[in-house]
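Possible regression after last week's pipeline update?

I re-ran a chain I had predicted before the update to compare outputs. Posting the input and the new output here so someone can diff against the archived version. Not blocking, just want to make sure nothing changed silently.
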Amino acid sequence: MAKSNFRLLTSIPAEDEKEETIKGYHSYWRKTNTNSNAGFVPIFKSFRDKHLATLEPGALRLYLFFAFAADNNYGNSWYSIEKIAEFFDAQTRTVNNWIKVLVDKNLIIREQKGKKSFTTYLVPYSNSIIKHQLKRNFKEDNQEVLDMFLKKITDYESLYGPLVEVFHFYQWKIDKKKKPIKEAVQWLFAITKRNDGILTGHNFTLKNSNHLAVDEMVIPDNGDIATFNSPFKFNTGNIKGLVLTHEIRLQGNTIGPALKLMEDLAKAEVWDWDDHPKFQYGELNEFFPEDETEAQTKTNSEEEKTK
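New output (post-update):
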């Protein structure tokens, strides 16, 4: 049966027509701005929780100014003190005081390169995770990889804060039925903490460790974490190796589990690692020898690649 009329409004939860109209007005305003690529300011809830009640009005207005001016991808903008003072009809000394407040609260960084105007960078005000790349390619995942990874982080301690913990993560991949298979993802994971308490997780995927594995595929008693002896060293000993259950995926677009894990690991001094199962770490083929079918499949795959 053909439709008798156009449906202009989508289903909007409302108690009456007036509420539906008001909500619809806002909903379509948002869609209009989104579809026209109008500029916007990404202010997250954590800003309200941490700064909204305590940031003085002038500094708050200046932060919004920088947020509107910033590149949405990288958080940078270029405005001189004079231009900012002109916009707010304020004294340059007043603007400088506002800037100092924002810098002291780790909300912005102001830097001048050469004779150019100062660049303002918005600084993250909540916990986050960064995926790192190294400037060199390595043929094996050796100690030099960890050393270069950590140097890349500690060179910017003034930005990230000092190192709190360093880990070696191991997680089995899964098949379509969400069962573990004899392939894994391994990565180095460092945690830094700023003086305002903001945590940053630094992630570097190990690409040359496919021949290494732990000796169990399932953590007993439905546990989420097991430990192993990592070959990587930091400070006075080996870093902690953690086997993460395959049931909670950390490599992907869902960031929530990774953030929660980082926040828990930052409190590592309260963890009793002996409470977790301990796995062995070594050659994959020694723990899980290939059967004839797997060996033939691997041979066929390699032959296909050479054709």
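Follow-up from reviewer: compared with the archived run. The radius of gyration is 26 Å. Marking as no regression found.
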